[in-house]
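Key idea: predict the complex, not the pieces.
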Amino acid sequence: MNPRDLSLPEWALSERARKLTSSAIREILKITERPDVISFAGGLPSPATFPNERIAQAAQRLLTADPNGALQYSATEGYMPLREWVAERYSTGGVEIRPSQVLITTGSQQALDLLGKTLIDAGSKVLVETPTYLGALQSFSLYAPTYVQVPTDHAGLIPEGLTPELTRDARLLYAQPNFQNPTGRRLPLERREQLAALAREGAFPVIEDDPYGALDYRGTPLPTLLSFAPEHIVHLGTFSKVLAPGLRLGYLIAPENLHFKLVQAKQATDLHTPSFTQRIAYDVIKDGFLDEHIPSIRTLYREQCDAMHDALAKHMPEGVTWNRPEGGMFLWVDLPERVDSMELLEASIAEGVAFVPGAPFYANEARMNTLRLSFVTVPPAKIDEGIARLAALIRARI
Amino acid sequence: MNPRDLSLPEWALSERARKLTSSAIREILKITERPDVISFAGGLPSPATFPNERIAQAAQRLLTADPNGALQYSATEGYMPLREWVAERYSTGGVEIRPSQVLITTGSQQALDLLGKTLIDAGSKVLVETPTYLGALQSFSLYAPTYVQVPTDHAGLIPEGLTPELTRDARLLYAQPNFQNPTGRRLPLERREQLAALAREGAFPVIEDDPYGALDYRGTPLPTLLSFAPEHIVHLGTFSKVLAPGLRLGYLIAPENLHFKLVQAKQATDLHTPSFTQRIAYDVIKDGFLDEHIPSIRTLYREQCDAMHDALAKHMPEGVTWNRPEGGMFLWVDLPERVDSMELLEASIAEGVAFVPGAPFYANEARMNTLRLSFVTVPPAKIDEGIARLAALIRARI
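Result:
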């Protein structure tokens, strides 16, 4: 802020606004938008995967055939053919998802805000993974919950750790079972079954956030939690990773008795997601495009994931460990205890390499010697160069 | 809900979600989407005013020239050239608005949600007009304020009524000075000066919501509150009424020390408004298109406003009064005391005519013998027919 702001009135901010702190990391990472920085920080999908021409054709077609439909106000619930498409896509293996369970959202981030609005009071207990998705913490925190970190290991949350004492009166458990942001880990089949059983028994409501499920590099998808308990799970999906994030299109699937509250909350929040972008997405995907398109995204990202794994193996000193994700966009690095990844970030940016420190992904006690690397934005040759520079900085700190 | 839902789990809803009630009016008005109903209910801009071809050309151009810009994640604050355009448009008559004060929102509705998030705690005093915009009540109510209705007359809120007792510790005053929804009334110049002076003196923060300012049918615009107190007013604008609502594009102008909190809240709410729609809007308007386009919208709506006024004068029985708005989309009807507009609506829909009863526009004590008519969606011939039917029903109730 410039000096003149000193003369401005003080706004009487809400308690939640006073608690919103400017993220130091976000400020640092703004620097990384410089083209000379090798950034493993952002979760930006590779623009090479955006179907530009198809989107342009769809826009043209819609504005010729039915401009009023594309440009007028529309239903809060979303564009019905798109809702039907979502319901059909999730209705597999004997599971039936109804279009009335689907709500189109302005990105998955909005689904998190709507769930915060409808499920969280000040002090409500919210169960999260250790670590968990930073964007979910940001959304939920506006509604002032009390977070409880669920015990986890290399494969994600441990259902046996969800004891009645830990989970009593929890308003929700939030999890990303597939290639979690930030760790890249995937919840095994048996744990999915156990977790879904707990949801079915009414132990606590489960939010299954699944932005990365389609980005499965080994071709061995696991069933969603939703498929085990379609009336007891809220499932979040997005078109950001398989079509284009700038369209800001996500969706949620919820039991009808929660869905209608989410619709009311959405009406008060932004009336509806843009008619135009919803219809473009439907026009692009309605004839099976994603099934042709997603394999090419997988191939690209798998190569970049392998390149990062190879670079880490080649350059990192002993005492540094990481996982090899089977999908998604991120991997997670554990540094020796004495290395603080916040301090490392400052040094690293001076060397033209960026990443996200691990601490902000923890709801409560953070591990400072962790960091998240994205492998989807930077091409393989640059990945090796960036990891080499980062490894040198880490070596100097051990 | 169908019978099977009885077996569904009860969700532990937040207090705010439990208070969200399904609007009886909204359910009734769903019927009015039937093409055989003459609907004066919706605030739907006339599709005849949508610049379909320009939007299609812009979409084509953007996806050819810079697909990555249109389809990638982008800044929470909004597309900088669009923010600069807004700042420049409001920098007139010696007032300087900086792009750093502008935040692009997913429709004006989102600006209301973000203001609720940043300014309202449970029980906070919020001052509103009598009646006021229903959508603002819906947004703010999620944050559980205590509403105080400000004294008003045919010209809008009365600054003398804003006594220190009434306004003490108010978190905000919310007003639509131009052609208010629902009444169509416009705040006179002198009252604007008085209200802006109160804001400058720090009596309370003022939110100036201005969706209809451009729809001025007599060509006699009045200065915004913002222009009198650019560092003390939050101004909301929208492209929904002058371009197309299905793009869901609005903006707010706020002092920087509040703006940065609004940006943080928006990041947690939907990350950013779609890159694609923001760039389309900018491409369409950057060379002065709105200044050519808006006069044609004004001409169309003025004719429809006149047609409604004439139809009311021709058909309504004695004891029914209404205003003749100088702009906007709505006019407001006062019925004899004994007529309840909720009951009238049910009868009216059976006759194929819809409107919105006045009661939901009151924050506290409602006047049941009022209703809102929109004149922008229905062409003049149908306006006369619909008003004739409505008048017959009212006559039968006097």
